[in-house]
Amino acid sequence: MDKTAETDLYLPVKAWLVARGYTVKGEVGAADVVAAMDGCMLIVELKLGFSLVLLQQAVARQAVCDAVYVAVPRWRGKVGWRAFKGNIGLCRRLGLGVLSVDLVQSAVQEHAAPGPFQPRKSLKKRGRLIREFEARAGDPTHGGTKGQVMTSYRQDALACAAHLAGAGLARGADVASAAGVTRATRIMAVNHYGWFCRVERGVYALSDVGIAALDEGQRPDGPLPR
Questions:
Q1: Which one of 33, 44, 154, 185 has the largest count of C-beta atoms within 10 Å of its C-beta?
Q2: Among candidate residues 218, 225, 177, 175, the one with its CA nearest the CA of residue 199
Q3: pLDDT of residue 92
Q4: pLDDT score for 68
Q5: How far is CA 57 from CA 53, 60, 65, 112, 211, in A?
Q6: Which residues of 10-28 are buried (b: 16+ CB within 10 A; e: fewer)?
Q7: Pairing state between β 31-37 and 40-46
Q8: pTM for the whole thing?
Q9: Higher per-residue confidence, 102 vs 134
């Protein structure tokens, strides 16, 4: 059974701060660790893992100190690292520093320094989000679902499939015109869902998978998107 306590984090964290010139004292007021040097002060909140309580406590300490760290035991394995990395990003956005403590080696590693954070904007991701929002017909998927999402691409593929269901065989240009899907030829050629089959050059039909998809009602509610 793991008998690790928050107090086990204290001495490694204190040693790390002392090595940087700080005078360190534990349990001062509401803070787990307070360190001072040349008129500058910082606070460290100790916990055995990331939690909402830890973040709330650390943010509360920012009312009395600009430099606030959270310190938790070092992660274990790849899954632990992925979760830890995500929490580093969250702490940065809150202006909090992050320390990990290797309790076996009594070693401390700084992963983020406390201070204001300005997230980097991704124009590429923003553009992709806007294009998908504008291209999607209606609002076919409830937010929060972990299931299949009705993307604009899937809507267009369904429109192509619905046209072929009635036409039997059709050229890509004819499907594009009739279904109102400008990328119809590419959708059918790439065949991401396996719904289409190429009969001859430029001519497509529905596959058995495509027929089953329409039969199972995998089309949007109401009229097919245009």
A1: 44
A2: 175
A3: 92
A4: 96
A5: 6, 5, 12, 18, 57
A6: bebbbebbeeeebebeeee
A7: antiparallel
A8: 0.60
A9: 102
149-226 architecture in CATH? Orthogonal Bundle (1.10)
Beta bridge partners of 203: 171, 200
Helix extents (H) in 42-194: 52-61, 77-93, 123-135, 152-167, 172-179, 184-190
Q: Are 42 and 67 in contact (CB under 8 A)?
A: yes
**What residue type is assigned to position 24 of the chain?**
V
In the predicted model, what is the mean pLDDT of residues 72-96?
A: 91
Determine the CATH number of domain 7-112. Answer: 3.40.1350.10
CA distance 202 to 141: 32
Report the alpha-carbon distance of residue 66 to residue 35 in Å, rounded.
Answer: 12
Measuring CA to CA, which residue among 132, 131, 134, 224 is closest to residue 179?
A: 224
Sheet holding 169-171, edge to edge: 169-171, 203-206, 196-200
Q: How far apart are CA 101 and CA 110, in angstroms?
A: 9
Hey, where are the domains in the chain? 7-112, 149-226
pLDDT at 223 over 90: no
